[in-house]
Design goal:
six-stranded mixed beta sheet; about 35% strand; 3 helices; alpha+beta; six-stranded antiparallel beta sheet; binds manganese (II) ion; Phosphatase 2c, domain 1; about 20% helix; about 210 residues
Amino acid sequence: MSEQVHTPLIDWAVATLALAGEEESGDLHVVAPFDGGVLVGAIDGLGHGPEAAVAARNAGETLMRHPQEPVQMLLERCHESLRGTRGAVITLASFNERAGTMSWLGVGNIEGTLLRADPGAGRPRESVMLVGGVPGHQLPSLRTNELELSPGDTLILATDGVRGGYLDLVAISDPPQQLADHLLEEYGKRTDDALVLVARYTGATE
Ligand SMILES: [Mn+2]
């Protein structure tokens, strides 16, 4: 499954692969524009199959209801709403239009990387801070990091159904959909649900 969408602030695309034999993926993405920004997230419901999908959808719906809230608060909300479910690991990134920044944080193991469009501008890659835990079961104390963005900077979120090393394959000039499809094709484990989301910051527009 794939789709390419333009929203204010980002061009983005997602590629997903459900575990063979399962109708539903327990991996889910969220892209939710709000007044002054856009929230981007990836969710991996624990395990696979219908129960994992239920937990992931629960978290997704919680995020869609409050996309404008700080990511830390959103993870706390998800922790509450996921009680009694299998739980889900979640990584979130919130783009702020006025400040030209992205704040991001993950609980669990969904990797997030920001690739800089201008390789001469300091560090070429930034990684999201991941704290241990599973929203719905256990939530550690949270602290959000914030980065300044330049147009072309590209966020990649990948669940643990994607093998490590995929960043070596990234050509930052590739369109988001091409990138997402390519990474999933080459690095999808096929022993777990897998999801790759690519969001390229375009800067404030019309
Ligand atoms: Mn997984």
